[in-house]
Amino acid sequence: MKYKTPIISLLTAFLMTITLVPQVSAQDKQATAIENPDVVVQVKGMTCEMCAYNMEKHLKQIDAIGDVQVILDEQKVLLTLNEEEAVAEYVLRDAVKNAVLDAGFTVEAVTFMKEDETSKAGPEEGH
Amino acid sequence: MAGFSFSERILKGCVIVLTMAHFVFPTFPAYAVAQGFGIPVMEPRGEVFRHEPIFGIGPRTIWKNGFGLEVGIDRDKSQRKESLGLKYRAIYGLTSDWAVTAESRQVLDQSGSDDTGLGDLVVRTKYRIYRNDVPGGVFHAAVMSGVEFPTGASGISTESTDFFAGLSAAYEGRRWLLFATGRYRVNTEGSNKIKRGNVILYDVALGLRPVKTDYYQPDLVLMAELNAQIFGEREFKGAPVGGSSGERLLAGFGAWVTFRNWALKPGIQIPVYNNLNDGDLDYRFVVAIEFHI
Questions:
Q1: CA distance B60 to chain A (A)
Q2: How close is the nearest chain B Cα to the Cα of A27, in Å?
Q3: How does pLDDT run across B19-53, given as a tens digit for each residue?
Q4: Would an 8 Å CB–CB cutoff place B173 in contact with chain A?
Q5: Chain A residues touching B263 at Cβ < 8 A
Q6: pTM of the entire structure?
Q7: Tens digit of each residue's pLDDT (9 = 90 or more) over B199-210
Q8: What is the ipTM of this complex?
Q9: How far are the Cα atoms of A24, A35, B123, B219, B276 from residue B271, in angstroms, in the given order?
Q10: Given A17, A49, A102, which is nearest B215 (Cβ)?
Q11: How far apart are CA B243 and CA B237, in angstroms?
Q12: DSSP code per residue over A19-53
């Protein structure tokens, strides 16, 4: 049978994947689980692991952001703020929007969960 | 297809691809259609990169300043020839919609020849002309173009500078993915006086994510593909070589297994229809590992 070798190899790869995926999934929970986010970013266009990695990478480049948690199914990114690098809310909002844009996605909303005194000096919120 | 001329085949193929694109994008912009014809991409061998079909290609680019590396091993087997090779590919994102890729294939072993070594260098660019992000998905389309330089080792290189162009459209969602791509490749006469026939390629791929895992969990997507290849007549010293043109339809099955910025992509491709005199492919098998930073 001329397809024997590749079919066996492919089946082996699939079996390994199917066996390993649930085990790794159970063990490898998201590194950062944020219970009380400072900022929630609602986005559009994320479909896969690499999209999530890309989003995480871009947002972590912003000094004012501490931890990042990407929730693919909800198309949501939870952020905590780095208090040592605090910036005005409108500055952070623009930085987040630019980071999401550079990552290749669309921002639907950036919601600050806690009131920020510095935001009063900035422009009005816009999505 | 035997009754169609080469230009009729191109037109028919464009209609098929654009019809599929229209199906995927009900609001597919007119400028995307207009620019889609005659724009630069690729060769029959598989294109495995960042959530693209295993043996076709998709409109995905990489993020701005993103860099990706891929190494894959592939094996082609036909009744007349076997070939084992390593494929190297690097991609860089100039913007989130514009990427440049360089790639080459190293032949490790091939039957009937002692020639091994690095093959020709392919440089291509892909520009995403349309993108509509939706919750948990994206509709997008890209044009591509590229050049294959005859930089390969003796006996491996095609010894000609070849050009390619294409248009790709896709919907990628959390559960289903659909890709449709048309490509055209213009081969020039090499220093060996052989001009391989121009090639038209049409690819359709359907993907399914059986389990919607979240970030930091391995992500499995199963892919099924149809790859049509239409080869024009070969020429030797300017004279057509009779019986050297023809068509081939291949079916491909594969998977993406992704974990954060790593991906593993195995796939197998087998012929469904073939009327090429020298294209008796038995199977093509590929496994690639991809890494993005």
A1: 10
A2: 9
A3: 444 444 443 333 333 333 332 223 344 444 557 89
A4: yes
A5: 49-50
A6: 0.76
A7: 999 999 999 999
A8: 0.72
A9: 36, 52, 28, 29, 11
A10: A49
A11: 16
A12: HHHHHHHHH---S---SS-SEEEEEE---SHHHHH
